[in-house]
Amino acid sequence: MTETKTEDLTRTIQSQEIWFESEGTRLFALELGHGTPVVFVHGGLADHRAALFRVKALSSTLRLVCPDLRGSGRSVHAGPLSWDRLADDLAALLDHLAIERAVVGGTSMGSAVALRFALRHPQRLRGLILMSPLYPGADRPLADAATSAMRVMSEAGQRALEHGLESLSPLFENLPQPVRDVALEMMRGFDPASVAATTRFLARGEQPLGSARELASIDVPTLLIPGIDPQHPAEVASLYARHLRQPLLVLATDPELSQKLAEFCTRLA
Q1: Which residues make beta-bridge pairs with 103?
Q2: Fewest CB atoms within 10 Å of the CB: 128, 153, 215, 268?
Q3: pLDDT tens digit string along 144-156?
Q4: How much is the pTM?
Q5: Dihedral angle at the C-alpha atoms of 112, 115, 121, 122, nearest 10 degrees?
Q6: Which fold has domain 12-133+165-267?
Q7: Nearest-CA neighbor of 131 among 222, 68, 59?
């Protein structure tokens, strides 16, 4: 059998599919490796494979768990979404795996879920990873580019519901390779109603925190990786760094990023 590109993301390290219940919805996650538990969450219009694309190397020395958020990938959900619900789903995942505390992180939308988890469930945290954060707090506006991107995604999500998943293809056509192929393969496995629910939620522009001042309540080491595009302005990570108690900034362009991610998580064992 020929392997797909996304199968290649997990073939060198034994993986385990995880199914768990949260508020009456069956949700999915993939687990790889052993050691200190690290939960890492994908961004919008993606699933666990996008998370693996960024942090799979961690599974060589750590226990890496990458969920499909409610309304994404195999975690089919067409109902209302909220940051609290998504954060509580991560708590349910930890409960299911009998993990008391974990390093929790994510990229883009996933970083917002991780942040909301940190605010709602601080006792479950070993550390926090916020990659390409985009939400400055409800007392500040989102970047215009982020608002515009979310509106375009919502419109595409509605078209997918009415006309099929190929309506999403234009959103991924300008991505660089091999990211584009992975994104298109993910897209073909999405549930249209879940896509519509997720993109509709994002387009509302709700934020996972009221103000950056709330970050002062998070008293665990936090690795910040600023965004490098207009939708994820680097200024958001800088804002976070001014309020968090234990911030560590690492640039996304750092050639040792993967190593520094692994070292950060390993120190929290």
Answers
A1: 38, 127
A2: 268
A3: 999 999 999 999 9
A4: 0.94
A5: 170
A6: Rossmann fold (3.40.50)
A7: 222
Residue-by-residue DSSP string for 6-41? HHHTTTTS-EEEEEEEETTEEEEEEEE--SSEEEEE
Structure confidence at residue 147 (pLDDT): 97
Q: CA-CA distance, 52 to 39, in Å (whole number)?
A: 11
Residue where the block lists tokens 């993910």: 186
Where does the chain have alpha helices with state H? 5-8, 48-55, 83-96, 109-120, 144-163, 179-188, 192-203, 234-243, 257-267
The answer to whether the beta carbons of residues 66 and 41 sit under 8 Å apart is: yes
Burial of 248 (0-12, 13-18, 19+ CB in 10 A): middle
Which residues have C-beta within 8 Å of that of residue 77, sequence separation ≥ 6? 25, 70, 71, 194, 197
Residue type, 206: E
Cα torsion 237, 241, 246, 248: sign? positive
Mean pLDDT of 229-243: 98
Q: What's the mean pLDDT when you consider all of the chain?
A: 94
167-204 pLDDT tens trace: 999 999 888 888 898 899 999 999 999 999 999 999 99
Q: Phi first, then psi: what are they for 129, rounded to 5°?
A: -125, 120
Eight-state DSSP code of residue 170: G
Is residue 37 a contact partner of residue 100, using CB atoms and an 8 Å limit? Answer: no
Tell which residue, 90, 88, 128, 89, has the closest CA to residue 111. Answer: 128
Describe the strand order of the beta sheet including 37-41 as a list of residue ranges. Answer: 15-22, 25-32, 63-67, 37-41, 102-107, 125-131, 222-225, 247-249
